[in-house]
Amino acid sequence: MRPIQKPSSSNREPLLTTAAVAKWLGVATRTLCLWAECKEIPAIKIGRQWRFREGELREWLDSPQAAKVGIGANNKVAGATA
Q: What total of structural domains would you count in the chain?
């Protein structure tokens, strides 16, 4: 019998909706869903809906992957603060 693992702190972080993240990043919800579907942005699919963790998004924003889609450290994002 395997011991039960405690969830990491990132797993306890509330999940953000597509609408909230799209507004934060200043992109259309459809664009955000396409990025999630293509694995351009860290996302979790729950049923038919995408959800996002703020911590993972902040890390992604500082990465070269965000610049690949035109968002990131070199591009200003409304409301994004470190």
A: 1
Which pLDDT score, from 0 to 100, does residue 81 have?
A: 47
Q: Kindly state whether residue 7 falls inside one of the protein's structural domains.
A: no
Stretches where the chain sits below pLDDT 70 are: 1-11, 73-82
Q: Smallest Cα–Cα separation from 74: which of 62, 56, 65, 60?
A: 62
**Do the beta carbons of residue 77 and residue 61 sit within 8 Å?**
yes
CATH of the domain at 63: 1.10.1660.10
58 domain residue, yes or no:
yes
pTM higher than the cut 0.85: no
